[in-house]
Amino acid sequence: MKLSNKVAFITGGTSGIGLETAKLFRAEGAKVVILGSNAERLKAAGKELGDEALLIQADLRKVSDIELAVEETRAKFGRIDIVFANAGASTVVPLEAVTPEYIEDNLTLNFTGTFFTIQKTAPLIPSGGSIIVTTSFLNTIGMPGLSILAATKAAARSLVRTLGAELAPRGIRVNAISPGAISTPFYGKVGLSEDQLSAVAAGLQEKVALKRFGHAAELAKTVLFLASDDSSYTTGTELVVDGGLTQF
Ligand SMILES: NC(=O)c1ccc[n+]([C@@H]2O[C@H](COP(=O)([O-])OP(=O)(O)OC[C@H]3O[C@@H](n4cnc5c(N)ncnc54)[C@H](OP(=O)(O)O)[C@@H]3O)[C@@H](O)[C@H]2O)c1
Fold first, then answer.
1. What integer pLDDT is reported at residue 76 of this predicted model?
2. What average pLDDT is seen over the chain?
3. Strand 7-11 and strand 173-179: pairing?
4. Nearest residue to 99 (alpha-carbon basis) of 109, 110, 89, 91
5. Is 52 within the bounds of a domain?
6. Counting C-beta atoms within 10 Å of the first and last residue's C-beta, which end of the chain has fewer, N or C?
7. What is the mean pLDDT of residues 41-57?
8. pLDDT for 58-91, tens place per residue?
9. Which residues line ligand 1 (CB under 6 A)?
10. Which ligand 1 atom sits closest to the C-alpha of 137?
11. What is the domain extent for residue 89?
């Protein structure tokens, strides 16, 4: 087992990539803590993960919720070996419809939430610990209607370098995972109709060299690599898992 007795703190652990990663981490011997804002999804994820998982309801747009979650984790486990800062969401909004409130909402979850997840967990991470941040293929290619989400993900990519440099002297590695088009509930929440979603999905799939969407489990295996000692000499980087979407 690659993560025996490691404590893993996973935001967005109730769905999609985060939930698949939590399941794989459990199977590899980790104690998992998952965070999500929706109580029902949290409960359903808890059933899949079993009794030993610590489930914490937290809205990552609130720094106080992150602080409480970290404190609950410290009280139960005393340390955090792995942080998967993965939660994220957005809606498709074209240039002319973007408002300051929309920008603020996106930034607060996708960037500020990621930053404070790392800042608040860092004091509990021992030497040898690993932080993984979920970025996006939107760092590399432009898609209409996603200007602000893409900007928050580019900012998250930047954080991985800077915080990786800050935390390296403590023996903590910081890396990003950049998913391509992955089949998760994410797309059902972006505010498009069924017809619009089908058209976007068909267009994306055509651009993917492997001609299919990825599975969350395929991302989880790469997160496991970055979380475990298998990647002990890898820090500051972004691993792309996108079937060739951004490479060819
Ligand atoms: N799927 C893709 O094709 C794709 C591509 C590129 C990047 N990504 C990135 O991958 C990450 C995971 O996405 P996914 O595809 O697995 O989507 P997902 O299935 O929709 O999962 C998103 C997770 O984020 C959590 N979350 C959303 N808002 C939150 C909030 N305010 N506070 C706390 N948690 C919140 C959700 O929990 P609750 O609903 O309970 O709050 C859920 O667990 C995201 O950062 C996304 O941007 C995905």
1. 98
2. 98
3. unpaired
4. 91
5. yes
6. C
7. 97
8. 999 999 999 999 999 999 999 999 999 999 999 9
9. 12, 14-18, 35-38, 41, 58-61, 86-89, 109, 134, 136-137, 179, 181-182, 184-186, 189
10. 6
11. 7-185+215-241
